Amino acid sequence: xxxxxxxxxxxxxxxxxxxxxxxxxxxxxxxxxxxxxxxxxxxxxxxxxxxxxxxxxxxxxxxxxxxxxxxxxxxxxxxxxxxxxxxxxxxxxxxxxxxxxxxxxxxxxxxxxxxxxxxxxxxxxxxxxxxxxxxxxxxxxxxxxxxxxxxxxxxxxxxxxxxxxxxxxxxxxxxxxxxxxxxxxxxxxxxxxxxxxxxxxxxxxxxxxxxxxxxxxxxxxxxxxxxxxxxxxxxxxxxxxxxxxxxxxxxxxxxxxxxxxxxxxxxxxxxxxxxxxxxxxxxxxxxxxxxxxxxxxxxxxxxxxxxxxxxxxxxxxxxxxxxxxxxxxxxxxxxxxxxxxxxxxxxxxxxxxxxxxxxxxxxxxxxxxxxxxxxxxxxxxxxxxxxxxxxxxxxxxxxxxxxxxxxxxxxxxxxxxxxxxxxxxxxxxxxxxxxxxxxxxxxxxxxxxxxxxxxxxxxxxx
Length: 462
Prior knowledge:
alpha+beta; four-stranded antiparallel beta sheet; 60% helix; rod-shaped
């Protein structure tokens, strides 16, 4: 527009643009503590000459003012993808390290209440019995120390079993949360599609979309992929969990029953979408993957190692005990009994004080030679030491990985925060700049009003 009144229109456009700029700055300040909020920026563009001028005319204007071209979310898609990847790894490692730390506390090694200390006491009680084969106190001490050792092994087995139960319940709760978050993301995708068609700003919906996508990555290691219409699809182990406005359901296919009990199979997963069910063949990451890894590998391996120690202890002691004779001259009976399915959890003492076969001579002769043999029979201590050392190394490794991954995740989050986070100083400056520009535009309108008043009401008056 050209002519005397064009300056009014130019000033009006500046008023409108700077009002939007102040609104956006205040909106950023108001959401400084909102989780997942990406700051906004107003982009303006000059309103100049016509794009297609008339053939027989010349544009004589000096500019048509300013208008808002877009309100832009300050985010980087590559950084967002990287953040989802790093948060997924961190969630996996943190859950694993936390569970292993609980297990390590239950193992209690080194310590006076651990299995190693109980084994040492059990061995020394046989040596004491070898020095006093007829003493009731020595025989009673052997049984008491044996029961303490069996109790220590049983306590560890129960600790492993309790952790496995905890992980199964955790896994069920996490899978349930995955379903809820997936449905929320699908609903958000639907809202984004609808709002985009209506020409409505979808910045707040995009923030919510990114928060939900990040949470799914933390839970499952899901890979989020932005679509041209602004929606996000999420795939888990290569299978779509969320596709547009459709959400699948992640479920535990095997390994855990609906009641939370084990079914004797490894933990596997499937995604149900309508009438279609797809079994996941690749590893799932995130919190779900950590629980599955603990249930499939780490905890069963330790339980098997502990069972082997208990079996070795019982079998070697029983074999040596059977070669001796008790106080009544009878051949030594089995000293320990256990259920082969769970040796560590069911180990019990199966003899009385008089049935302790300390002698190598028949006929009730007081002799402690067999007690000395039993006191050194087998290598359960060495097996247990290897088991505990290996587990301790695994715990230390998990904790180191968490520290390393935490640093990496923090770096990525810091990079995102520099771009997307709200800086109160910057927003205050932006608001003051818009305010001054608004005041200047208002001043232009006042001046033009005064000029027009002079032209209209005073020109030609003599």
